């Protein structure tokens, strides 16, 4: 709750007026500063209400950093096996750029997958032998095989998915949702980030879950593995809860004095965040304590679940956060960047992620949470249908490929048991319903093709938000997650 004497409007200076005007008086930004709705137990966002009735309340995003090879997982291409070792035809490549890692190869041989595929479920979706658990729940999934992006390297590609722009400096998706919709709880952040421990590969940066020009209270809070999941949250040795409370009360008084003098909304957020941290001293240890989970639930997630910081442990923690009202839960799992030694490497990745991802869906469903929780699985781009480096009978690698790749969605108002979009016979381009390769334009919606901004627009739609109307005025421009593009993919909506 806001406390202290009201601000005297006559004391406003020209600087204060212009600062307030730049935020849009009575508009979106000030909406984010409204007091908590004590009757609903939530923190209001910038939107007074969703634009239309939402089908999802929260999101769990299982981001597979590095670019999973769709040819080994979901996009079955028998022609690649038939033509294994032959050169990628020029008409298939169509002059598309290659990365600096394979552009100078004297040979770019097609590489068939060494893994077997089979149809599963009533939907008959193709799933690799690497994903036996996912195959069992395939009728709950909406598999999109026709994602495409513009970035061909990891950092801009991951940044694009998370913020809607390839260049750093925009708010992340979780921050936009925190800003627009607010929180579903008062004792945990609206946006929590979990990163699998001890996975090398491409680096991840805190700006991927940053708030950028939005209020700092919308930044994602990373939970680390171990006894103190949130750094500097616990009281230092010798400091009691009573002492901490006294310090916060005094600090709050000083901050309110500064607020009355400076009229800076960030000071108000600083006060609120100190209070949130105080409440989190109780809520964070409770949510992170997996020891109270029954054995059958732990068994569901697999043997890694009791190892803090593993993907399995983080998936279970994500469910616990979801049922306690965290709006956006972002998991990162690295290790999918397989330029060489792909077969044994992807086996490890599949083993680490297949059962926990499936367990999360089953766990949410049995608790009645899947219907209003949108779960997303996928990486920043796909992999090439040709081998990077030397191709042998049992070994090969795949380079980055932004032209087409696979992700899946589940719960939260999407259709289960469907596969949306397709690729050509070589798995190199998105194809139309006759199998002919197409070159989709992000500025125009192409049925069967899904651009990054289309996915983001669809996610927001499922949460009750018109992606063109969730904006923030910054430096004279109204920014939004989908920039100036994006179309809702209505065919995947349930």
Notes on the structure:
This protein has 494 residues and is an alpha/beta fold. The chain has one domain: Alkaline Phosphatase, subunit A (3-Layer(aba) Sandwich). Strands 1, 4, 5, 6, 7, 8, 11, 12 and 15 form a nine-stranded mixed sheet that branches. Helix 8 runs antiparallel to helix 9 and helix 11 runs parallel beside helix 12. The longest helix is centred in the C-terminal third of the chain and has 25 residues. The protein is globular and about 75 Å long. It starts with 13 loop residues before the first helix and ends in a 15-residue tail after the last strand.
Describe the structure using short key phrases.
nine-stranded mixed β-sheet, alpha/beta, two-stranded antiparallel sheet, single chain
Count of DSSP H/I helices: 13
Distance between the termini: 39 Å
Strand content: 5-15%
Oligomer: single chain
Low-confidence stretches: 1-41
Largest sheet: 9 strands, mixed
CATH class, anyone? Alpha Beta
The residue-averaged pLDDT reads 89
What would you call the shape?
Answer: globular
Beta-strand segment tally: 17
Provide a quick synopsis of the model.
30% of the residues lie in helices and 14% in strands. The protein is of the alpha/beta class. The protein has a single domain, classed as Alkaline Phosphatase, subunit A, CATH 3.40.720.
Write the layout of secondary structure elements.
Blueprint: H1 14-22, H2 28-31, E1 58-64, H3 78-82, H4 90-93, E2 117-120, E3 125-128, H5 132-136, E4 141-148, H6 154-163, H7 173-181, E5 191-195, E6 221-223, H8 241-262, H9 265-288, H10 295-301, H11 311-323, E7 328-333, H12 342-366, E8 373-378, E9 382-383, E10 400-401, E11 405-410, E12 418-420, E13 422-423, E14 430-431, E15 450-451, H13 452-462, E16 472-474, E17 477-479
Helix pairs in contact: 8-9, 11-12
């Amino acid at each position: 709750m806001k406390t202290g004497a009201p601000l005297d409007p006559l004391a406003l200076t020209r600087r204060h007026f212009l600062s307030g005007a730049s935020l849009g008086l009575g508009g979106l930004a000030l909406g984010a500063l409204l007091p908590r709705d004590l009757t609903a137990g939530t923190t209001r966002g910038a939107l007074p209400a969703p634009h239309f009735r939402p089908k999802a309340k929260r999101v769990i995003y299982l981001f597979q950093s590095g670019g999973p090879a769709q040819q080994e997982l979901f996009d079955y291409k028998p022609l690649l096996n038939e033509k294994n070792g032959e050169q990628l035809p020029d008409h298939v490549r169509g002059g598309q750029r290659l990365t600096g890692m394979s552009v100078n190869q004297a040979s770019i041989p097609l590489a068939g997958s060494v893994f077997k595929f089979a149809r599963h479920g009533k939907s008959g979706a193709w799933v690799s032998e690497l994903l036996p658990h996912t195959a069992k729940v395939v009728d709950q999934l909406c598999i999109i095989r026709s994602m495409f992006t513009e970035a061909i390297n990891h950092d801009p590609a991951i940044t694009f998915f998370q913020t809607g722009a390839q260049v750093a400096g925009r708010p992340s998706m979780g921050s936009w949702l925190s800003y627009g919709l607010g929180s579903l709880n008062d004792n945990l952040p609206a946006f929590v980030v979990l990163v699998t421990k001890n996975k090398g590969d491409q680096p991840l940066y805190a700006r991927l879950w940053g708030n950028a020009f939005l209020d700092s209270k919308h930044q994602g809070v990373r939970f680390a593995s171990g006894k103190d999941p949130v750094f500097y949250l616990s009281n230092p040795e010798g400091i009691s809860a009573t002492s901490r409370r006294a310090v916060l009360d005094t600090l709050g008084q000083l901050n309110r004095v500064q607020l009355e003098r400076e009229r800076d909304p960030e000071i108000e957020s600083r006060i609120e965040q100190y209070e949130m941290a105080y409440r989190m001293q109780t809520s964070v240890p409770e949510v992170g304590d997996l020891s109270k989970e029954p054995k059958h639930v732990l068994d569901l997630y697999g043997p890694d679940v009791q190892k803090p910081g593993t993907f399995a442990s983080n998936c279970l923690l994500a469910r616990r956060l979801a049922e306690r009202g965290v709006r956006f839960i972002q998991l990162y799992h690295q290790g999918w960047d397989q330029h060489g030694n792909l077969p044994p490497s992807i086996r490890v990745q599949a083993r680490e992620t297949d059962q926990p991802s499936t367990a999360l869906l089953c766990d949410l469903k049995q608790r009645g949470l899947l219907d209003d929780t949108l779960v997303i699985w996928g990486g920043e781009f796909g992999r090439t249908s040709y081998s990077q480096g030397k191709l042998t009978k049992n070994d090969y690698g795949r380079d980055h490929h932004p032209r087409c790749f696979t992700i899946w969605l589940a719960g939260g108002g999407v259709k289960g048991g469907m596969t949306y979009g397709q690729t050509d016979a070589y798995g190199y381009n998105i194809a139309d319903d006759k199998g002919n390769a197409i070159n989709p334009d992000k500025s125009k919606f192409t049925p069967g093709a899904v651009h990054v901004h289309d996915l983001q627009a669809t996610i927001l739609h499922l949460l009750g938000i018109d992606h063109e109307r969730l904006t923030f005025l910054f430096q004279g421009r109204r920014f939004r997650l989908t920039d100036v593009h994006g179309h809702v993919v209505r065919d995947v909506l349930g």
